[in-house]
Structure formats: structure tokens, C-alpha cells
Design brief:
The complex is a heterodimer.
Chain A (H helix, E strand, L loop, with lengths): L5 H17 L1 H7 L4 E7 L6 H20 L8 E7 L4 H12 L4 E6 L3 H14 L3 E3 L14 E3 L4 H15 L4 E7 L2 H16 L3 E8 L7 H10 L3 E5 L2 H13 L5 E4 L6 H7 L7 E4 L8 H13 L7 H20 L3 H10 L3 E3 L3 E3 L1 E2 L4 E2 L5 E6 L2 E4 L6
Parallel strand pairs in A: 1-2, 1-3, 3-4, 4-5, 6-7, 6-8, 8-9, 9-10
Antiparallel strand pairs in A: 10-15, 11-12, 13-14, 15-16
Chain B lengths: L1 H31 L6 H18 L4 H24 L8 H22 L15 E3 L2 E3 L1 H23 L1 H11 L1 H6 L4 H27 L6 H16 L4 H22 L4 H15 L31 H13 L7 H26 L8 H17 L4 H20 L8 H20 L1 H4 L5 E2 L5 E2 L2 E2 L3 H24 L1 H11 L1 H6 L4 H27 L1 E2 L6 H14 L4 H17 L7 H15 L9
Antiparallel strand pairs in B: 1-2, 3-6, 4-5
Helix pairs in contact in B: 1-5, 1-8, 1-9, 1-10, 2-3, 2-4, 2-8, 2-9, 3-8, 4-24, 5-6, 5-8, 5-10, 6-8, 9-10, 9-11, 10-11, 11-16, 13-18, 13-21, 13-22, 13-23, 14-15, 14-16, 14-21, 15-21, 19-21, 22-23
The chains are: A alpha/beta, B mainly alpha.
Amino acid sequence: MSNIDRRTLVKGSLAAMVAGAAFSRSAFAQSSEPILLGVSGPLTGPNAQYGTQWKQGFDLALDEIQAAGGINGRKLAYQFEDSQSDPRQSVAIAQKFVSDPRIVMELGDFSSPASMAASPIYQRGGLVQFGFTNSHPDFTKGGDFMWSTSVSQADEQPLLARYAVKRLGLKKLAVLHLNTDWGRTSRDYFVNAAKEYGAEIAVTEGYIAEERDFRSTLVRVRDANPDGLILISYYSDGALIARQARQVGLKQVICAASSVYSPKFLELGGEAVEDVHVGTRYFPEDPRPEVQKFIAGFKKKYNGLEPDAFNAYSYDAMNMAAAVVRIGGADRKAIRDAFTKVKDVPSVIFGTATFDVATRRVKGAMNAELVVRKGQFALWDGKPT
Amino acid sequence: MSSWLDYTINGLIVGNVYALVAVGLALIFGVSRLINFAQGSIYLVGAYIGWVAVVQLHTPLPLTIIVVAAAAAIVGLVIERFGLRPLQNSVRIAPLLATIGISFVLDQLVMLTFSPNPRALPSQLPDVRFQVGGGTIGPLDLLIAGVGITSALLLFVFLRYSKLGWAVRAASQDRDAAMQMGVDVNRVNQAVFGIAAALGGVSGMLVGMYYNQIDTAMSLQATLKGVVAEVVGGAGNVPGAVIGSLLLGLVESYGVAVFGTSYRNLFAFLLLVVVLVLRPNGLFASARQAPPEPLTGTFIAPSRPVRIPRWALLVAVAIFAVLPFFPVSFYVLQTLINAWLLGMLALSLTLVAGTMGQVSLGHAALLAIGAYTSALLSLTLNVPVGLAIIAGGLMSAALGTTLISPSFRLRGHYVSIATLAIGEIVSLVILNWESVTRGPIGISGIPPLSLFGYDLVSPTSIYWFSFVVMVALALLQGRLLGSHLGRSFRAIRDDDIAARAYGLSLNRYKSLAFIFGGFAAGVSGAIAAHLYSYINHETFNTQQSILALTVVILGGLGNVVGAIVGAMALVGLPEVFRIAAEYRILIYGIVLLLLVRFRPQGLLGTM
């Protein structure tokens, strides 16, 4: 310090500040500052667990992206704002992101009300809202800045129907579904496909997310006398229904949507989920390299923790974001255009993901036919249960 | 026909689960005349302590129960000593709000410690099942039933035959008289909170084992169902709480049997409203029991409101009016838009709860009615948005007042509970009335705000629009409160018997207050609908109602300026604490507690 004249120091830093201000734009583009993505999602409130799972997937993907040299030499980073998945907060966050020049695109929000309430702001602000859990059929209709890797239920449910009706030979079905936009849309796609395959729908029952007691619902199901139960549920309610179904004496085959695919489903369901059939988009023993890399990395980073579907979605979403930013650079509009150009991004859920420019969604989710055997998910061997 | 036996058994089993929470609530209500909204959180804490004991420490079942009961009792004692005892001499609403604040803090602490992922809590009882009807019953079902009924019986014996029990009953009938007779009321309160918390904790653990699942979101549902069961049975009546719970379980089960699963909670809340209207003190209240709230006015803190000079208000309005001309970010404007929308809701509630003394916990329903009306009119009938918003306000005023009118004869806490139920009912009707509301899919593509053919899409124009509407509603309300009508409202609030003796028609004035309040809330909901472009039945939920009440208390009941200041504070605080991410609800809860403790009359005082 003593060697440097204080005045020179002050002058120098002033000059640097002026230069910084004058050239901030161009300096920013090549700076060593990370490229910043905004994330709007729940960290508190009733959906907090999903925000936590998102972070795990994001962080793993970012580790790999950074290790591979980042985005053209720059790091990729995200700023996570807690919306509680509440529309009032997600619109404020949207304004915050839109008016923050460092943010180049946004990921989230979790639920449809929170995401779609913010859509008009992202659209007008010219910032991509990249949803990866947004299966509401209208989400991408919010404008050309709305893109989604959430598997369209129009894509997934017919596969589940095929598994249940054609492969397992169930002819008369009872459908239990979460009574939300997702559950309802899924149910309709499932029912239509199952009917096309020649099955009869004996009863459909919608339940709200907070529901814990399904015994009376299951008596209704029993009285309809189906030969299979279809669960359009998340893992926690799916496990509850399976347990209570066995408790009230229902012995029918249970078939569940991929959303129950989680180690938690086995833990919460215990013996009751034995022999439950699940159509899923990825499976740890799937030999595809994308899947194996994801699982190995995840277990290494999180002390042997098994990843589940939401971890996979967020991991995929971050990789997709990186691929898009690699093409579009740090410019918001160029990033929007990059979504139309990006091709065959390696993906746990899709194998390789390419957007359908008309729907702004990705098609062709992988499907594995699983069954729970000895407390583990296993590929179904074709034997009836 | 055998199915009916199964529905009955299932109803009784789930009724037992509700009873575990309701008994604790009833005990506390009996002594402190307090609906303890933290009871569900103690239940949550008990479940997680149970998890630690079972999964980490491998305790056998009897020891697990003792550990959980002891730990939960300690939590209860701490709540009583540090959360509620300091509020003894403040207004009734203060401890109620404190329990809401405490529940935020407890839920959040559990979430931070254990993460929000659900956990499996294995049952420690053998998994044998006995065939009953078409279904089966296991040992855990019987244990839950045993715990519920035994604890109710033990409590009954305790209250009737033990000395401390007499003291409890004496304190619950007349606190001051009991103190004069030498009863140590604090000790009584402590005992009651300890017992209730121990029960709550054990019930959380048992219910967790029953479902093999615990998660941090289980507390609010438990509180809601517990409150319904307790009030149906007769608030403060312990055996009544058990019978109310069983009845609730049966009604839900039969409701599912006849109408299907998606109607389940609808029947729970309809039962509550019907019981409240026919027997306002619950099914098992004794005829001799004094009315639980002698005067509606006991809710309102005596205070000298802060008089804000007219010029200062004008300056503030002017500053906010010209704010967009200064370089403020859209994020700040959007946050203020949220504040103005919440301000309109708070104006509505402060009139109804503050000026009129009818504390509503279901105000989000008015938002929802306004929002759906305006969205559907503009979307399907192409009504211009400006008119649709007014129609939304009118519809909220008309429908809201009609729905709430059966509760006009209720008093005090019962009004809150009836409005809570009506809020839930509106939300469930929206979910199920698919031909009109589009059910769970919600309404998307709602046209943006517009005025005279011009779309208001920039944050600046939305800011001005909502600000002008809010100021207009506030001026109108200020005028109303200064008039003869406003004085009549306050007269009814302060002493409804005297007001009636003076010749005021209570129902008519209450209707007028709800009509005006409904309009303001409906307009707020309608604007929000056009702002968001997508709404569904979850957009306006119970949390919103509680938030609105917090705003009103914070600002000062009945205080027009206070409502707006409160709205700005409560929209602003979470945004300020945004950097604190996971911790911000915790901070919010603590701030709420401190406010209730040190300024129960609100920032600007009660009018």
C-alpha cells in the first residue's frame, strides 16, 4: 500500500468506474460474471418440498455444466426467488426479473395459477418463462415467450392407458385423480385413451390435495366392482390410497401415473404398494447414458440419496437452459429464438429433447413399464400379478 | 346395503382422528375462551418428535407416547407462558392472532429442521386386521379410538371431580370471580395448556402412524377440521367435541357415499353452518350456559387512534400518485399494486370486522366471487372490462351478503368460524360447479384490464388504475364512517343489546356493512383476475383471509388509513425479507407476535 500514492488509487478507481459505466453493456457480455437465470418457485408454504427438490436437480446440473467449462467460458448461475407458488408473489417476482438486466431467462413457477398469472408480464417484458412442471394445457398459449419441457399429458396418459388395458388386460377401471388442473386434464386424456383401447370406466373420483382419508372413496370404488385401480396422484397421496385400499380389502391391480415415481412412494406406501404398476419416464436401471450419469452424479452429490421425478425435471430443465443459452448468448430475445433452434439435447426424461415449435413443448417422453417388486421399482417382466 | 355399514365404520374411524385435535381445542376454549389456532402446529410438532423417537431412537410404543406427550406439553407451556400470558389483559382478538403467529413460527421451525419432504412414520403396532363389514379394522384404529374417548372421559372426570378441575371450570365461567376466590388462574391456564398440548402432540403422532406419513402441511388441515368438530359439539365442551368429531366423520363419509369424493369437505362445512344457525352454541351446549361473548365489542381494543392530519394524507396520496414519474422499478410498482389490491380487501374487512364487529375469516370468498364474475362476464359475454369489474363488485356484495346473512345472529368467535366455513364452501362450490366455473381447470385467457377501449397493460397504468380505485373506495368509506350510518355501525359493535333497545335493526345494518364491504372486496378480486389472466379455485384461499385479518389488526380495527398502511406493510414485509428465503415466514410470524404483544390496537389504533 505504501508504494502506491493514495491519489493515484482514487483516480484509478474513479476512471475504472466511469469506464465501467460507459461500457457496462459490452463489458457485461464478456465479463466473468456468471450468466444469471431467474427461478420463481416455492421454498416455503405447502409446496415447499418441490422447490427443495428443484434446487437439488439444478445444483447437480450446474456442477456438470461448470466442470465442462460453463457457457463459452462463463459460469451459469441462478437466483431463486420464493413465490410460495402464490400468484400474487409470482407476478411481483416476474416484474423483478423482467426489470433486472442480469436475468436472461426465467424457470418456473411450480403451479398453474402462479405460473400463468406471471405469463403476461414475461410475455410483455420479453423474457422467456421456461416452465418444466407446467402441464396445464394453456400454459404455452400465454405467448411465444412461454416454453415448457413438462410432459404433455396428451402424450403420457395414453401410454399409461395402453399399459393398463392392453398389457395388463384390465377391462373395467376405477380412476382416482387429484382434483387439480393437472389431475383433471390427465384423467380426461386417460379415460379417452382407455375407452379407445376397449376398457370400461366404472367410476372416477376426484379428491383434493389435502385429503388424507380415502376409506369412503374406496368403498365407492369397491361397489363399482372394477378389475383395476388407476391412480392419477402424486407419490404422497398415491401411497396413502394404496395403503387404505389394501386396508379396506381391495385386492385389485393398481396402476399409477409416473408422478408417483419416487423412492418416497415405496417408503410411504410400504407393503401396500407391492405389485403396483407404474408407467414412468425414467428409471434408474434404464441403461441409457443420460440416466446413468444423472443417477450416479445425484447419489454422489447428495450422500446416496435416490433422485425422483422432480429432481429429474429440474436437472433436465437446467441442462436445457444451458443448451439454449449456449446458442442464444446472454440476450433475451436471442434466447427465445434459440428455443426454436436447439436440437437433441440429452435428457433424462426424453432421451433427447427437441421443441415442437408450434406447441412450444417437447414431445416423445420415454416410457418404461415398471412394477414394484420386493419393495423396489423393477421393469415389468410381462407376468400378471 | 352392507356398504352403509362400511361408510359408517369409516366415518367413525376418521371422526376419531378429528376428535384427537378437537378435544385439545375444546379444553383450551373452555378455560380461555380462545380458539387456539396453534393446536394444529403442536400436533405437527408431536408427529415429528414421534418420528425422531421411532425412527432415530427406536423407542417402544409406550415410551414413544410418553416422550411425545412430555415434549409437546413443554411446547404448550412455553406457548402459554411467553406467547399468551402477556396478552391476558388485552383484547380478545389479540391472543387469537397470537396463536396464528405462533402456528406460523412452529410450522416453519419444523420445516426448517426436517425439510418439507413427507416422511414415513411406521406404526409400532402389529399389522393384524379384523374383518368388519366389507372392510377391516386394525389395532391402530382401536388405539386412536381408545385415546380419543379415554382422554375425553379422563378430562371429564378431572374437570368434575378434582380440585384443579374445579378451578379450571371456575376460571372458565368467571375469571375475575375465580381469582377473587383465590384460584391461581395462571396455574390453571398452565395446566390446561400442558394437557391440551400433550394430547395434541400424541394425536399428531398417532395420526402420522395411521397414515404412515407426516408432512409439514398437515397442521392447517388438522386445525380446520378440529375447529369444525369442536364447534359442532359445542365450544368448550370436551365430550361434545368427541361427539362432534364423530358426527363430522360420519357426515363426510355419507357425503362421499351419496355425492362422491370431490364433495367431501363441502359437507363438513355445511354441517358447521347448519349447526351454527340452528344451535349457535353447538349441539351439546347446556341451556344454562351464558352466551360465550357477552358483547361483540369485547373484540375491540380501547385506544386513542392516531389522528393523521389531513394535509399529511394529501401529501402521501400526492406522492404515491406521482411515484411512477420517478425512476422506480416495475418490481416496486407491482409490489405496490399488490398492496393496493390487498388494501381494498382490507378496507372491506376493516368495515365489517372493525366498525361492525363481525370478524370474518372467510373474506377470500368475496374476492373469488368478484374475480369469477368479472372474468366470466368479460370472457364469455364480451362485457367491457370496466363494467365487468363493477359487476364483480356488485355480485360479491349481493351473493356475499346473502351467504353470510344466516350468521348475523351469531356473536364473537362464532361469526369468525361461520365466515371461515362460508369461505371454504365458496371455494369448494367453485371447484365442483364445472359447467360455470370450469372446475379445477380454472379460467385462463382473461382479458387484460381496460378502460374505455384502452388496454391497461403497463405496470404504470395498472398502478394508477388500482390506486385510484382504492383511494375512491377509501374516501367513500371515510365518508360513510363519519355519517349517521357509521355511528350506528359502531353502536352495534360496542353494545348490540343497547343498540337493539334503541331501535336499530341489527340485521339491516349488518347487511349494509357486508354490502359495502363485499363490493370493495369484489372489485379487488375482479381487478386481480384481469391482472393475472388466469384464476382457479386456489387463487383466493384461506391464507388470503387470514392475511386480510392480519392487515386489519395491524392497521387498527375500523381504521381506514390503517387498513391501507397495514396492507402496504404486509405486502412489503415478505418482499423485504425475500432475501431471507426459507426464513421469511418465520420472520413474518415473529413480527406478527411482537405487534400483537406490544401494539394490539394496531399501528394507527382502533377507530
